[in-house]
Amino acid sequence: MKKIVIVGAGRVGESTAHNLAKAELCREIVLIDIKEGVPQGTALDIQESAPIFDFDTKLTGSNEIKAMAGADMVIITAGIPRKPGMSRSDVLDTNLAVLYGIVDEMRKSAPKAMLLMVTNPVDVLTYAAWKRSGLPREHVFGMAGVLDSARMASFVAMETGFSVKDVTAMVLGGHGDTMVPLTRFTCINGIPIEHFLSPEQIRKIVERTRGGGAEILSLRKTASAYDAPAAAIARMVDAISHNRHHILPAVAVLKDEYGLSDISMGVPVVFGECGVEKVIELPLTPDEMAEFKRSAAMVQADLERLKK
Known about the structure:
- The chain is an alpha/beta fold.
- 42% of the residues lie in helices and 20% in strands.
- It folds into 2 domains: 3-142, Rossmann fold; 145-306, L-2-Hydroxyisocaproate Dehydrogenase, Chain A, domain 2.
- It has a 9-stranded mixed beta sheet, with helices on both faces. Strands 7-10-11 form a 3-stranded antiparallel beta sheet, covered by helices on one side.
- The radius of gyration is 19 Å and the shape is globular.
């Protein structure tokens, strides 16, 4: 990709820009934010690290949404963050208005760009962005599953003491309290975690995964997570930029997969240069499918608010 635009130069946007630049996943990164001087200063700060990290990516900042013109990908991190005690759904109305303004300009200035949604509630906003933009579902997707699965893998490594490099985890469903960590598909170097952990240990890991974002928010008080989300975004962009055909859990618009349509949910996705190449349907057990459908019901409840 030549140009990636990040709308929202807060902590997630800044960390994302730095990760993308260091990995040289595109030639140009533009940070856009409504706060005067913030995107410009953030871009300059990252640019000045180029001699140290040895990258040639060019970074600029702008307060004009039209600066997204010609983008190959638009990453949306803009919006209000949740505060302690708030759910991701609590920020829906405000962030929906922000999203619509961005997507409307994108339709004019970057009509062929892919759209990667990060702002919460990400499942609902991914769907809203897809509907508003008129883009094919392959070009609109959200970041959640990579982050949730990374958190689960981290907790497994912490609990077992084994290298996190050997841990693979899979988390599906909505990005919230009803997400579905699939312990059956979570392994340590190919060995199911049940071989190393007791049912009680696994239960605690599942619950900690579901509350992973809230745990960081409660500790920091004034800031939510940003380093891990930015790393997850970079992982997705890398898969697309290098056409890796990489399987990653992400928010995708479903069309009959898992028995669902007209909804965005976290599922395993094959990412390549054209975005979402395929949604992979895992053979879920009745209990796993029931959890997945419960999670879908929560997302659907928020989607109903869009129609009012």
